[in-house]
Design a protein that fits this description.
Helices cover 19% and strands 28% of the residues. It is of the alpha+beta class and 231 residues long.
Length: 231
Amino acid sequence: MKLSRILSNENGISRRHANELLASGRVRVDGEVCHVGAREVTRFQQVCIDHTIIQAATPAYYLMLHKPEGYLSATVDDQHPTVLELIEPALRPHLHIGGRLDRASTGLLILSNDGLWSRRLTEPAIKLPKVYRVTTAEPIAPEAGKQFEQGIWFAFEQMTTSPAQLEPLGPREARVTIYEGRYHQVKRMFHAVGNRVTSLHRESMGPLRLDPTLAVGHYRPLSEQEVSSIG
């Protein structure tokens, strides 16, 4: 929301008076004087007139979870445990999931209450790389890497996936990098080349890598550097 709108919505302050407050340097955003009424201010920022708080800052949460197998990437479910059950109860109502994993998959999962930030992490058009370690039922065919690079045709969506990279790690193991995040994309890509994924573990999303010291089922806040890396 624009700063001028926040000011004029409070205590019957007119737009003209709001502009006068801005011009006189009496308005602060997160402690810094701001003269620009058109500045976009999020709910995570504090706005003051002189020493009076007219918008308190909502705490922002950015969490990294090491997702275990068997948990749904959902807020609530009647049949299966959800990843929110691994989070401190007081935080659960505030969080949404940025980039889901299916129940059988493991690895990096991000939870936040900042929708604009998490959309930058997951929006397909931005094409942040997402890296997965995959085990397959059958040996991975030599030509699979080239097929992934060319993109895989998904008949249901009537579209071809963006080029992906497949790095063999063993006869039935590979590291796969995709740039979209469509429904069950990695599993469907392997199915399209005549194979089946038996385990899938997400290692990274863009610059965010799963902390190797983070135990399965545990979570931690992202550092300021990690948060700011999602521009």
